[in-house]
Amino acid sequence: MSVEPGETPAAPGLRERKKERTRRTIRTEAFRLFREQGYSETTIEQIAAAAEVSPSTFFRYFPSKEQLVVADDLDPPMLAEFRAQPPEVSPFLALRNAIDIVYATLSPEEIAFEQERQALLYHVPELRPAIGMELERGIDMIAGMLAERTGRSVDDFEIRVAAGALAGAGLAVAMTTPVNDENVGRALEFLDRGMPLDG
Predict the structure, then answer these.
(1) 8, 99, 139, 157: which sits with the fewest CB atoms below 10 Å from its CB?
(2) DSSP letter at 52?
């Protein structure tokens, strides 16, 4: 169900809350096993057993072990906050504000989880092929956001270039520094200033 800007999302029902708890438990137990024995050495069967679900239940939530790491749960709330930004706010500032708002709602544990997810994605060799797919997905998502906000086509040349710059900046930050609103915000401000490198 879509939520219009300014609307408050309906509270999830019991079934949705139970599904979200199961999904969160699967990811939490998976990441614990990754820390204890390594990503490559951890099997889906072990993750399912630790989460007290069947392997078939695991696959209902995640199509693969790789997708368990790749899935970005911050995208939907960030997109909602971006859409809620006033129309006079520039696209880059709207994105910065959206990221600030979403990160402000996260607990320290949730921020640590996101940083660990990013570290796994960008530093586990077996997950390297997923980086290209994530970059492409990120460009498409950001292009859609920018196109919606500016009234341009999602295939507009400048929209695609701006989306590529933003997605690439996010990748660069994630590979070298902790992923948090401060570092992402710095990258967005740098891009918005035209990336000056002259001192």
Answers:
(1) 8
(2) T
DSSP designation for 120: H
What is the Cα–Cα distance from 37 to 31, expressed in whole angstroms?
A: 10
Count of CB atoms situated within 10 Å of the CB of 186: 14
Q: Residue 12 has what DSSP assignment? A: P
Domain-by-domain residue ranges, the chain?
11-64, 72-199
- pTM for the model stands at 0.80
State the DSSP H helix or E strand holding residue 19, giving kind and residue range, or none if neither.
helix 14-37
The per-residue pLDDT for range 157-187, each reduced to its tens digit, is: 999 999 999 999 888 888 888 777 888 888 8
> Which residues are CB-contacts of 125 (< 8 A; sequence separation ≥ 6)?
none
Which class in CATH covers the domain with range 11-64? Answer: mainly alpha
Distance of CA 25 to the CA centre of its chain: 18
